[in-house]
UniProtKB/TrEMBL annotation:
Domain AB hydrolase-1: 19-246
GO cellular component term, pick one: membrane
Gene Ontology molecular function, alphabetical: catalytic activity
Protein name: Pimeloyl-ACP methyl ester carboxylesterase
InterPro entries in alphabetical order: AB_hydrolase_1, AB_hydrolase_fold, AB_hydrolase_sf, Epox_hydrolase-like
PANTHER family cross-referenced by the UniProt entry: HYDROLASE, PUTATIVE (AFU_ORTHOLOGUE AFUA_2G14860)-RELATED, MONOACYLGLYCEROL LIPASE
């Protein structure tokens, strides 16, 4: 694996074949995709840390993070790599970015594989997400509290009972985020609006867990109804951190999805 810094973003780039852009979610990093790499052997995998997340600093222009800003960053990254079209895989907040990318630049995106997908946060959830942004600015101790709450609320009962290493991984992923970057990421999510999903015209895979409270099955079914020809897969005994909690099932779903495209 090769880590580069492009346009201020830390990016892991490896493999050969068609380009695949992997966009993590809130509290994530390029490592959200490490568990499923064996299923992606036929791709040139491009795995950035989003602005303000993990190893990537906040934008130098001082502007607050936003969905449009994330899309701009992804388009600049693809331009720097001289990539005209790309498959896109995303998780959580990253799925909103991916949908807006596909809607804004339809010739750029070849397909969408979306894990724990959401079109936008429910209105009832927005104040809590905004409040989390303020909490995060409390620093390391606050980030630990947020991480512990996410481990408790966003993983399945079975994961909590049977996969302690996954709990540690989720906790570490969130706890090591830069506090201000995470706060601005929360603010971007709290303000996110849905792309016009009816305009998406690429093969789309939607994957969620039956215990995913962020992307409940009913909400993802509503997304499926808005995206023509999209396919929905629901994992049993799985929460929101899909690629960490159920990597084997994720790989099976990805292999089937990409095999159908070839």
């Amino acid at each position: 694996m090769t880590t580069q810094v492009l346009n201020g973003l830390a990016v892991e780039i490896d493999g050969e074949g068609e380009a695949l852009l992997c966009i993590h979610g809130l509290g994530g990093s390029s490592n959200n995709w490490t568990p499923v790499l064996p299923a992606l052997g036929g791709f040139r995998r491009i795995r950035p840390d989003l602005p303000g997340s993990a190893r990537s600093p906040l934008p130098a222009d001082g502007k607050g993070l936003s969905i449009d800003g994330y899309v701009d960053a992804m388009l600049r990254l693809l331009s720097a790599l001289d990539i005209a079209s790309v498959h896109v895989m995303a998780h959580s907040l990253g799925t909103i970015v991916a949908q807006h990318l596909a809607a804004r630049s339809p010739g750029t995106v070849k397909s969408l594989a979306l894990f724990g997908p959401l079109a936008a946060p429910p209105d009832a959830a927005r104040p809590n997400i905004a409040a989390r942004a303020n909490t995060a600015r409390g620093g390391a101790a606050a980030m630990q509290e947020i991480a512990d709450a996410i481990v408790k609320g966003a993983t399945s009962t079975q994961t909590k009972e049977q996969q302690p290493a996954v709990l540690a991984l989720v906790r570490e992923s969130v706890m090591r985020q830069p506090a201000e970057g995470y706060a601005q990421s929360c603010a971007a999510l709290a303000d996110a609006q849905s792309a016009v999903l009816e305009r998406l015209d690429v093969p789309t895979l939607l994957v969620t867990g039956d215990q995913d409270g962020v992307a409940p099955v009913a909400n993802v079914q509503a997304m499926q109804a808005r995206i023509a020809g999209s396919r929905l897969v629901v994992f049993e005994e799985c929460g929101h951190w899909t690629t960490f909690e159920q990597p084997q099932r994720c790989m099976q779903a990805l292999e089937a999805f990409y095999a159908a495209l070839r």
